[in-house]
Write a structure and sequence with these properties.
alpha/beta; Rossmann fold; four-stranded parallel β-sheet
Length: 324
């Protein structure tokens, strides 16, 4: 059963005491670059540094007492991991997080800091899912998916509710898409509170399964995805895709070089620390500025968990303590 607009409203009430109502900011330099009025929804300033706090909090608070007592588990490259770890700590239940060995160090450290047990795995979807099954079988924990879940989708949609309220009269909203929880939730939310807004997904060229799926008319898996946007490498979810296909105006893809340039623009011009996955909406706005010219455009900056030792425009650093 797909989440409804009413579910998004209920999620907003449920999670309000536990999350930030993040600001919507503007930047004249970026407006001039794109020829449009941009409204940046700063989920990089959300708890755990990403929008994922919304969905995870909604999911954990929706569990019955018996379910919550078993603890929760998931697999994630980072932001959902942090969000679930924090939500579990707040409810006083244990959390087990399966994380690929390639997950950024800053995200692994944050998950551990929230008190969750990290279970490492190889950086493939098959390895993540197999390791998670083993964890759930061993612990009895409740699986809280990172994106393919009605409670997660509804929670993520609350960011768009706030954006529409704080920046009325938008023509488009640009939103990152990986697994599709944020994009699907955004589309559901805006279909209820601002149905005239066109929602556009933004995806890396090297991880374009949602764009290919829309073109094919059915869900296609990601095939060897490669991108600097580590949070957008997952295949679009089974529950997410039908909502996206029905409610989203399209998906724009951009190369990693454009994402890195947009990330740097956000650092330098808007003074916002945004990770590559979060900067892809601005990259798409720059690439499609002719289509956006003169309009009012919301852009969801989905996260800000950046490894400052490995900014993508800097040369790679050598490991000061190589494995012996």
């Amino acid at each position: 059963m797909s989440p409804s607009y009413a579910d998004v409203l209920a999620a907003a009430d449920r999670i309000a005491p536990h999350i930030h109502r993040t600001p919507v900011v503007t930047c004249a330099a970026l407006d001039e670059l794109c020829g449009a009025r941009l409204f940046l929804k700063c989920e990089n300033l959300q708890k755990v540094g990403a929008f994922k706090a919304r969905g995870a909090t909604n999911a954990v608070l929706s569990l019955s007492d018996d379910e919550a007592a078993r603890g929760v588990a998931t697999h994630s490259s980072g932001n959902h991991a942090q969000a679930l770890a924090l939500a579990a700590r707040r409810r006083g239940v244990p959390a087990w997080i399966v994380m690929p060995t390639t997950a950024p160090a800053v995200k692994r450290a944050a998950v551990a800091g929230y008190g969750a047990v990290i279970v490492p795995c190889e950086p493939t979807l098959a390895a993540r899912e197999q390791t998670l099954r083993e964890v759930v079988a061993r612990t009895g924990a409740v699986f809280v998916p990172p994106y393919d879940d009605e409670r997660i989708i509804a929670g993520q949609g609350t960011a768009a509710l706030e954006l529409a309220a704080d920046a009325p009269g938008l023509d488009r909203v640009l939103c990152p898409v990986g697994g599709g929880g944020l994009l699907a939730g955004t589309a559901v939310a805006l279909s209820g509170c601002a149905p005239a807004v066109k929602v556009v997904g933004c995806e890396p060229d090297g991880a374009d399964d949602t764009a290919r799926s829309l073109a094919a008319g059915h869900r296609l898996p990601a095939v060897a995805p490669r991108s600097v946007c580590d949070g957008l490498l997952t295949s679009v979810g089974e529950r997410n895709f039908p909502l996206i296909a029905r409610l989203v105006a399209g998906v724009w893809t951009v190369p990693d070089e454009a994402v890195i340039a947009a990330m740097r623009l956000l650092f330098e011009r808007a003074k916002l620390v945004v990770e590559p996955s979060g900067a892809i909406g601005l990259a798409a706005a720059v690439a499609h500025r002719r289509e956006l010219a003169g309009g009012r455009v919301g852009i969801i900056l989905s996260g800000g968990n950046v490894d400052l030792d490995r900014l993508p425009w800097l040369p790679p650093r050598e490991d000061p303590c190589p494995t012996r």
